[in-house]
Amino acid sequence: xDEKTAVETLTPIADLQSIKSTGTNPAAPQERKSxxxxxxxxxxxxxxxxxxxxxxxxxxxxxxxxxxxxxxxxYGVAAPTTQTFLVYACLAIVYNSYAIYKxxxxxxxxxxxxxxxxxxxxxxxxxxxNYFVVKSFQYTSMLSxxxxxxxxxxxxxxxxxxxxxxxxxxxxxxxxxxALCGLGMLVASDVITGRNYAAADAxxxxxxxxxxxxxYGISNVSEEFLARKHPLYEVIGMFTFFATFxxxxxxxxxxxxEFSSLVxxxxxxxxxxxxxxxxxxxxxxxPVMFRLGSAVLYNLSILTSDFYGLIFGxxxxxxxxxxxxxxxxxxxxxxxxxxxxxxxxxxxxxxFDKETAEAERRQLFGLPANDVEQQQHVIEEGTTFDxxxxxxxxxxx
Length: 397
Hints:
Oligomer: single chain
Strand content: under 5%
Order of helices and strands: HHHHHHHHHHHHHHHHH
Mean pLDDT: 78
Largest sheet: none
């Protein structure tokens, strides 16, 4: 018996499949990696892409928070549904127009027919998540709202574990915990400097924030799932299409009188335009982040938005700085880096590539899955073996 036969005899079938696919035997003792090998991700281009993309998204969120604060404090405008309506409308117009350009009217309508219900649910969840989180700040303290809003990160991890079959290492959990500790330092610094305010109805506000954070987590994981299976122009365009109408109905019911507060205040209208630009960039890049990283990593990255908010607040709102802020920022970044010590876990479905795109296109238009099935389909429709090569040669000419 040669060596190869002996290995196959003693090794289970599952392990043989692992050996053939990876070239390593999982039963063999694993060599411990040095710290130099563990931090090798710092030389990885993908890590830095994800890192800087996450900070761009964090800055976008900072911009929306600053604009919302200015609208409330300086112009007396407090209308979360009114603000987001223009965002959803612009996204729907731009990305659905591009989808029609790429796939034609028939392909665009097929998206509605085959997957419209999923995008309707996603749009509804996203609209209500935005509404409840913003609304919670009117009832609970800023300290409670910021801490409870972080609930979206563990929600993403739980949902990714259950539905996307993502399996995390203990290092990933540690990285999330450290990043959340950094955010806790930021909140504690706000309390020390007196930036926190009393709660008008703490129970109601806390429940609103927990509900909104949960909806955020559901929305992020659902969008990641769809972004890994379908083109981004379809995902963004379809769910914002439904979100626009859901938002409009909610606006007419809850905020009909808020339009009057914008009359005669062109500066406030300009603020809403800035808010729309920030949110447009955020919603356009977030699915890219989901593909390169994950919904969990997205939520980790945007924890730094409070630090950036302080920088803007120094000049706009007279905020003061404590020593804890720069340390907290560094701790959040360390948490994100620790999350990457081991390769970031990827859902079992993988990422969106050319093969996935082609399979998705064929499935959408009801075409055979591959060329062999295409040829068989043509034969079954009455084309002879002699006719097929001739027509192919003629088309090439």
